[in-house]
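name: query_chain
kind: protein
chains: 1
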Amino acid sequence: AGVVVPDGFGITEGLQEALHYNVDIAKVSFNLINGIVIHDIFVYDKIKDKENTILQIKQASFHLLYLPLLKDQKVIIPLLHIYSPEVTIRYKKDSTLNFSGLFSSKRPEATKQKNRFIPLIYKVNIIKGELLFEDERQQPKFSKIIQDLNIGMSAGDLKKASFVMHGDILSAKEKPSKILLEGDYNFSSREL
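structure:
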């Protein structure tokens, strides 16, 4: 049991501003064990349908460190759990990616100053995800799915991030292939 949080602390608006896409959140709640819990997150382009949805998350949860929030207005999230995300990466016929708006630098000045809290997240766990890759430039359309995708990412210091990822690549006629990736990303040199 938890407490339903009205208006979601402006989480929807903050995500829309950061991602440059429409965001719908079904419910935001709080409980002592899981902290802030966000249910049924949809990130989509024009309309919320299968073709335009980029990301769908069943649930995300995190705790905040309250002293930095109260003292310095810093939002620090030690660990973010993301459950059952479904990501669609699609090359469209015009050779653009369906999520290219993420890299847009257009931000209205009014919204830049309105959101003064930028979260600092130290660790992210993604559990039971699914990644769909489609290439509409190919005839017939190329498609691959990675299921049971589990990813752990952490940034101990702000110089590098470490990650581990594993999942199953599905094939129509064969048994799934396993994928396992692990490594570090150096922010200053931009190298894996």
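note: The CA atoms of residues 135 and 142 lie 5 Å apart.
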